[in-house]
Amino acid sequence: MGYGFLGSRTLAIAAVAGFFVSAPLTTAQANLLSDMHAKVRVGGKVCMASHVHTGESGTVASKRAAMTGAARDWSSFTAFEYGRKWASFRASVGKRFSCTKTTGGRPLYSCVVQARACRY
Q: Backbone dihedral region of 66: left (phi > 0), alpha (psi from -120 to 50 degrees) or beta?
């Protein structure tokens, strides 16, 4: 999953894994990664100012299931990189879904979501 040559997610995972060598991240390691990005206040939350994470679904039978899968993937990767306090998809901002539907036969859906992580 991901985009471009090797995919941005693949490169990000490799960079994080190579830098920290072990997973899951300690709180100090997650804070170090999140501190690399500018933050802004949005309501009662602190959010990444411009850094966007991506989540992708598999191919499933409904658009709703594809959107849910993409959101879960987004949360999982965000938790891996910044820790659980940043991983709430519900708290994230700037959500943009892009979904596709196969043609012919039984319709199948897949979605990609992009959003900026926030924490309370």
A: alpha
- Alpha carbon 64 to its chain centroid, in Å, reads 17
Residues 60 and 46: their CA atoms lie apart, in Å, by 33
pLDDT digits (tens, 9 = 90+) for 2-15: 433 344 454 454 45
**Gap between the Cα atoms of 62 and 80, Å rounded:** 27
Q: How many residues does the chain have?
A: 120
Query: What's the CA gap between 118 and 95, in Å, rounded?
Result: 12
- pTM for the model: 0.73
Tokens of 11: 């490169």
